[in-house]
Amino acid sequence: MKIKIKSVNISEKTGTVKHPVDVILINKLGVDHDAHSGDWHRQVSLLSTESIAKSEQKAKRKINFGEFAENLTISGMNLIDAAPLDRFKINDVELEVTQIGKKCHGSTCAIFNEVGECVMPKEGIFCRVLHGGSIKADDEGEYVPKIFKVHIITLSDRASKGVYEDRSGQRISELIEQFFISKKRQYEIHKTLIPDSAEQLRKLITDSVNAYDIIITTGGTGIGPKDFTPDVVKPMLEKEIPGIMEMIRMKYGQQKTNALVSRSVAGVIGETLVFTLPGSVKAVEEYMTEITTMLEHLIYMLHSLDFH
Predict the structure, then answer these.
(1) What tens digit of pLDDT does each residue of 85-141 get?
(2) Is the Cα dihedral 299, 304, 307, 308 positive or negative?
(3) Mean of the per-residue pLDDT values for the chain?
(4) Which residues share a beta bridge with 151?
């Protein structure tokens, strides 16, 4: 989606309105000479002319660029449609969305007192800098939604030979699709079916790390002679997240003790979340029910966004 920069604005003090300038320079800490620059997640603020227009109707007066303390006043999209980890590309500058809105300080805020309200808490967007450069009014840019990439790996000798279809991998695909649709996020799902091969699994995961946001395996988590998935994956994890699988085993193990036999693991490799699930459709549904309740939080934490 194309966007256009209507104004670039700075302020020397926090909690005050900003004023338009000819050009802003963006470095790794944010906008040069702006009070909000620093080593944190709200380095650059954006507000759309669409949001300002709504406030002008309420205030019954023209609101100048920067009055809501936005660094970039843009047109071309409704910014509240953006989400964390989406990106804006303007010239050489690349910004990553880290927060939608912020807490309003009401009467203690100079902006609130001058304008009568502040739209930033509901419709402002905050970003961190991925790549710096310069931006000026009338520059054009692009809004790039985050596309979450998921790799589902099914381990099964018989399914790989076509003896029966891969039902567990397909069910994971359906459930992860439902999750991203419910969050209104874009996604791509890739499925791979392999025989019970530790070598193939290890190579697939190695090749998929950082190319995918999430890797989910199904099959090989028990104690049979070909159940080696956790033994392959666990040493590859940079950080294990034991509580997830422990909770799932305990919850469903109270209903059916066979669930306690699963040796499933969860963790992180690079910037990729990895989950190893059992091979039955019923177990997949149980595991995915719990994993999807925390998946968004895990993704954000992995990218240093903690919304506690």
Answers:
(1) 999 999 999 999 999 887 655 555 555 555 566 677 678 899 999 999 999 999 999
(2) positive
(3) 92
(4) 190, 215
User: Residue 95: in which H helix or E strand, if any?
Assistant: strand 93-100
Closest CA to 46 of 24, 18, 79: 79
- Length of the chain equals 308
d(CA 19, CA 112): 16
Among positive and negative, which fits the CA dihedral 65, 66, 68, 72?
positive
pLDDT at position 62 is: 87
Token pair for 65: 């660029």
Strand, coil or helix: 192: strand
**pLDDT for 149:** 98
* Token couple for 107: 């009467």
* Whether the Cβ atoms of residue 144 and residue 77 lie closer than 8 Å to each other: no
Residues above pLDDT 90, as percent of the chain? 78
Assess contact for 43 and 129: CB atoms under 8 A: yes
296 three-state secondary structure: helix
Tell me, what amino acid is at 4? K
Contacts of 35 (CB under 8 A, 6+ apart): 11, 12, 13, 14, 16
Q: How far apart are CA 165 and CA 162, in angstroms?
A: 7
Supply φ then ψ for residue 46, to 5 degrees.
Answer: -130, 145
Number of H helices, E strands in the chain: 9, 17
Three-state secondary structure call for residue 233: helix
What is the pLDDT averaged over residues 216-232? 96
Stretch 248-273: mean pLDDT: 95
User: Residue 74's closest CA among 47, 52, 53?
Assistant: 47
Q: Which residue intervals of the chain are DSSP H helices? A: 49-59, 110-115, 120-123, 157-160, 167-182, 198-208, 229-233, 242-253, 281-302
Confidence of residue 17 (pLDDT cuts 50, 70, 90): confident
**pLDDT > 70 in the chain, percent:** 94
